[in-house]
Design goal:
Blueprint: H1 2-28, H2 36-58, H3 75-94, H4 109-127, E1 138-142, E2 145-148, H5 149-173
Antiparallel strand pairs: 1-2
Helix pairs in contact: 2-4, 2-5, 3-4, 3-5
C-alpha cells in the first residue's frame, strides 16, 4: 500500500517539472528580429567573407590559372567574378557607389585577393544601414526581369553559396581542403 501513495506524488511532481520546463522554454525564445532578411544576409556576409577569402588565399598563386576543363573559367576568373558581383550587388542594394576597380582574370593572386577582400569590406560598410523597410523597391533589371531589393539580397546570398562551392571544388581538384573542411584548430 505504501507504494501506491507515492505514485500520485511522483506524477504531480513530474507534471509540475514538465510545466516549469515548458514555461522556461517559452521564456528562452528570443524576441522577433525587427529586420530578419537584412540581419540574416549580414550574418551570412561575415561567414562567407571569412571562408571565401580563406579559400582564395589557400590556392597557390601558380594555380590561379587552373581550370578543371577547357570550357570552364580559371580560378582567377572565379575570384574576379566574386569581387565584381559583391561590388555590383552591394552597391545596388545600398545605393552607395562602388569603387571603380579594374580587374582581369589574369591579374596576379595578390591583386585578385586584395580585390576580393575589398569587395567584402565594401559590402560590410554598404549594408550596415540596410533594413527590411524597402525590400519591395525595384532596383535594377537583369535583361527584362526587374529585381527588388529583397531579390538582390537573395541573389547576393545565393552567389556566396554558389561561388564558395565553386572555390571548394577547384581547391579539392588541386588536393587542397577548403576552409570549411579543415580540421578544427587545437
Amino acid at each position: 500500500m505504501g507504494g501506491r501513495s507515492v505514485k500520485p506524488t511522483v506524477l504531480v511532481l513530474g507534471a509540475v517539472l514538465l510545466a516549469a520546463t515548458a514555461v522556461a522554454a517559452q521564456d528562452a525564445t528570443p524576441p522577433p528580429t525587427p529586420n530578419p532578411v537584412t540581419a540574416t544576409v549580414k550574418a551570412q556576409l561575415t561567414r562567407y567573407e571569412k571562408n571565401m577569402v580563406a579559400a582564395a588565399d589557400l590556392m597557390p598563386a601558380e594555380k590561379y590559372n587552373f581550370k578543371p576543363t577547357p570550357e570552364m573559367n580559371t580560378f582567377g576568373h572565379v575570384i574576379m567574378h566574386i569581387a565584381q558581383s559583391n561590388y555590383f550587388l552591394c552597391s545596388k542594394i545600398s545605393g552607395q557607389a562602388a569603387p571603380d576597380t579594374k580587374l582581369a582574370d589574369t591579374d596576379p593572386k595578390d591583386k585578385l585577393l586584395a580585390a576580393l577582400k575589398g569587395s567584402f569590406e565594401f559590402c560590410t560598410t554598404a549594408l550596415a544601414a540596410a533594413d527590411d523597410a524597402k525590400l519591395g523597391d525595384y532596383l535594377f533589371s537583369f535583361g527584362t526581369r526587374q529585381v527588388t531589393r529583397a531579390g538582390a539580397l537573395i541573389t547576393l546570398s545565393d552567389d556566396w553559396y554558389d561561388h564558395y562551392g565553386t572555390e571548394a571544388v577547384y581547391l579539392r581538384l588541386n588536393g587542397i581542403l577548403p576552409p570549411t573542411a579543415q580540421p578544427p584548430a587545437k
